[in-house]
Every structure is written in C-alpha cells, then in structure tokens.
Amino acid sequence: MSKQVPETIKKQVKRSFNSKEVKKEKNEKRMKLLKEIQTKAFKRAEKYEKEYLEQEQKLVELKQQALKEGSFYREPEPKLAFIIRIRGCRSTTQNQEKILQLLRLRRIYSGVFIRLNKSSLRMLHFIDPYVTWGYPDVETVRALIYKRGHARVNHQRKIIDSNEMIYDKLQKFDIVCMEDLVHEIYTVGKNFKHANSFLWAFKLKPPVGGFSTVKKSFVNKGEHGNREQYINTLVKKMI
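The structure corresponding to this sequence follows.
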C-alpha cells in the first residue's frame, strides 16, 4: 500500500514549480527587452554617425563659401564644456570651494561636463585658477563615457557596463543606450540635465608627462583656464 503524500509537501512542490515558471517568464521578457535595446542602439548609432558627418561637411562648406566671398565664417558659440580640476583646496576661498563642490569637482583630476551659459561662465571665472576646461568634440565625449563612465545608481558609483543600466534609469527621456547618452551630452539636448546627473564625475589619471605649471593660465604657457579645442588633446592623455 502506497503512502499518501502530505499536503504540505504538495504545496511546496507547487510553489517551487510556480517559482520556476515565473523566473522563466521573467528571463524571457528580459532577453526580449535586451534584443529590442540592442536593435535600437545599432539604428541610433548609425543615425547619429550620419548626423555628425553631415554637420562636419556643412561646416566645411560654410567656411569655403565665406572664403570665396573674402570673409570669415564665425562658428556658433559652444554649448558644451568639459572641466577638469587640476589643483587642490589649500588656497581656495570659501566661495571657490562651494562652486567646486556644486560642480562635483571634489578631487584633483576629476572632470565633469557642463552646459555653457552666463551663469556657468561666471562660475568658471571664479574657479579659473583651479581648473582647466574647453570644448570637447564628439570623439572625446564618447571616449570619456565608454572608457571612464560611471553612473549614479542609488547614490552609489557603478560602472556603465550595459545599455540595460541606461535604459532602466533614462528610458523616460528616450535615452536607452550608450550612443543616446553620448549624443545627448554632446549636443546639449533637452534632457542634458538628466543625462549629466546620471553620470558620476569622471575620475581621470594625471596626464602623461605631467603639467608644466598649474599656477599660470593656458594662454601664458601654463595649464589653468580655457584651452578651447585643446581640451581634447589633454583628455586623451588623462583617460
């Protein structure tokens, strides 16, 4: 005569089976979502690359046209800057330290993106002796995010190792992959604030070969202050 299986054992088996089914369903949904994100990422990367090339070609054409007419083409004012802190806090004033904290430049060799406007330019003027900054090109923005990018997740610094992480935090702003993030930062799009807040301040290395002198401005053969497009050369040495 066979023994009857206790009711508690039956319930445990049923719960275990249901749990496995739920997990299987979740995994299937996740795999489907990852495929959708990957497809979007490829399409948007192609779209953005085409957009960047068209912008470059248009700029060349405008410069050539101006040259033919015997004049100069004035490029639009930059909207994006990348700032790197190059000095410590021994001689900073209270206001300078507050601005550095506000910009998340708490440590030497930390860097952040910033939208350029009257307010931010005024702040840069106050902290000029402690930072160097300039106008990053798309290759520099991409290199920083891909090679040194970390995200702010639950107030913790997490390396950006997948598009899924970006999707989870920024999908409501139509930013779902790395190239979306690069594009939003580089073009200073309408959701720049959210994209930039998602990024943790970049931790860079001391530049190869070191700095010449941080006490002099860049225009006086030193290091601090605005170095315009030459920020791209410096960032390459610090990534």
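The chain has eight helices and seven strands.
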